[in-house]
Amino acid sequence: MNLDLYAVLAIAAGIVALLVAGFGIFAVYAAFADRSGFFRSAMRRWTVFDYFLLALFLFGTVFLLADVSAVLRDRGDYPYYHYGYLLSGFVYNTLAGVFLFVRLGLALRALGQDQKDAPQEEQKPAEAEEQAAKESS
């Protein structure tokens, strides 16, 4: 079996697409099936998977831009329907970027609410020393 570079790239892209779709399905299932609220509280933070999706978004953008430069350089070598493929790729990639930006905004907003809801005990240094002296004696 002789695999060329394009076949290896296609297989790798298929595996990544299946992993991303699988995580999306799992996230929806876990969010609806979670009774304790653990998963929902975990999704309020920016996670390692979000960094992975950001890298995937940037990687896809680079490949789309490389394809656009090739099409602009050799217009006669590509059929007209290839422009539709490129346009749909940019639409999908733009939507993915918008969703990542919204996800980042929601995570930052949740972080700000968590910090605002946390009790803030402000004491003057003299009061803190007096309280420490009371507790030690």
Describe this protein's structure.
The chain contains five helices and no strands. With 137 residues, the chain is mostly helical. It folds into two domains: 1-43, no CATH class; 44-114. Helix 3 packs antiparallel against helix 4. The radius of gyration is 25 Å and the shape is elongated. It starts with a helix and ends with a helix. The relative contact order is 0.07.
How would you sum up this structure in a few lines?
By secondary structure, the chain is mainly alpha-helical. It has five helices and no strands. α3 packs antiparallel against α4 (81-117).
List keywords for this structure.
single chain; 137 residues; mainly alpha; 2 domains; 5 helices; 0% strand; elongated
Walk me through the topology:
Elements: H1 5-33, H2 38-42, H3 48-73, H4 81-117, H5 125-136
Helix pairs in contact: 3-4
For the report, how would you describe the main beta sheet? none
- Computed structural class: mainly alpha
The dominant shape is elongated
Can you count the helices? 5
Task: Determine the fraction of residues in helical runs and give it as a percent range.
Answer: over 70%
% residues in beta strands: under 5%
Give the averaged pLDDT, no decimals: 81
Low-confidence stretches: none
Number of strands: 0
